Amino acid sequence: MQSTLSIAIAGAGPAGLAAALYLHRAGHRVTIFERFEKPAPVGSGLILQPTGLTVLDDLGLLGGIVALGSRIDRLHGVDARSGRTVLDVRYRALPGGRFGVAVHRAALFGVLYRAVQREGITIETGVEIDSLDMGEAAVLSDGKGRRIGSFDLVIDASGTRSRLRRYSDVPVEPTPLAYGAFWASLGWRGEGFDERALLQRYERARVMIGVLPIGCAGPGGEKMAAFFWSLKPDDAGRVQTAGLEAWKARVTGYWPECVAYIDQIDSFEQLSLARYGHHTLPVPAGRRLAVIGDAAHSTSPQLGQGANMALLDAAALAHALKQSACVEDALAAYARARRWHIRGFQTLSRMFTPFYQSDGWLLPFMRDSVVATMARVPPSPRILAALVAGTIIDPLHRIGLAEADWQRVAANSAEAIQVGAT
């Protein structure tokens, strides 16, 4: 596309910030609208998979995020009662030296946000976009009825609570999932924990406890871990009524070593209650509208793809605009490029979630016996690693990207760490 577009982006999360960088660099006039008075991350930790890391590499930001995060080589889950390993996924089962990078959401936000600031991209805060008027150009309206614009293209990157996806061609709202989680960002305690692994403990599918090393929230910060405890959001009040000490006793009853983490928790106010929903827009676009990130698709965090999908969406939209003759063609190309990767992982997430978060006994029994055994037999280790890495369905070729050279990334990371230590 040769012409310069005026583009509005609703939401200053990873999807919106990455899209802003891509489109600003392509020569478009970009304005980000953020509903908070000060842009800030929401949530604790996440794993950036090779897919999302490749997008950050393409943006020239991979070094910054690797320096803050914690390299992840393995996902390991154990039955809390028997001690039997029921999940063991290793990136090394794939060729090329792939790995994940676990980060605090503040670290990912900070790397993207500082890049946006350096490039002088306009961010208007305290503006919550409520509706769109699609005429010859797109005009935005905020919650106070103020009209903003006009724009050639609007990008909805406003997350699961989006008010704009109703303007997509086939709008769909999230269906709440039964299970959510308590989350906390705590100081890293290494004894008994692997700094290169996501570790989990299960009791059937009703209890899941996890510890994920997430590096530092910002330059010079202390090393941290994301701690989570799965539960139904409707049960959170009952847990709180029973008291903090009763909850801590339950945690240590399943996983005694976690005392190093829960001793850092003095109040339920330190725990954030995450609620999850599932939806997939059949067409993540409408007239002069592109929907990206959690606004376009959301699911449980079992496969850990949320932020990676958001970054891929931003890269895909930028590629479609670059390759297409007009906005309408670009939106259609964007939807096609992301269709199968998104639908594939959304379907897989629906399939896997009940094995880890549900009330029944049959699926957890199958997970701990049949599935755990099969997972050790080739080619299962490689398939599971590709599933976690986000590459079991290739999302990169269709959006003009080639996967990063992981051996180069690892070497550069080791060199940066060594320089920092001296």
TrEMBL record:
Coiled-coil region list: none
Keywords: Monooxygenase, Oxidoreductase
Gene3D superfamilies the UniProt entry points to: FAD/NAD(P)-binding domain
Keyword Lipoprotein: no
Entry GO MF terms: FAD binding; monooxygenase activity
One matching Pfam family: FAD_binding_3
InterPro entries the record matches: FAD-bd (IPR002938), FAD-dep_Monooxygenase_BioMet (IPR050493), FAD/NAD-bd_sf (IPR036188)
Ranges of residues in domain FAD-binding: 6-339
Top-level taxon of the source organism: Bacteria
Name listed for the protein in its UniProt record: 2-polyprenyl-6-methoxyphenol hydroxylase-like FAD-dependent oxidoreductase
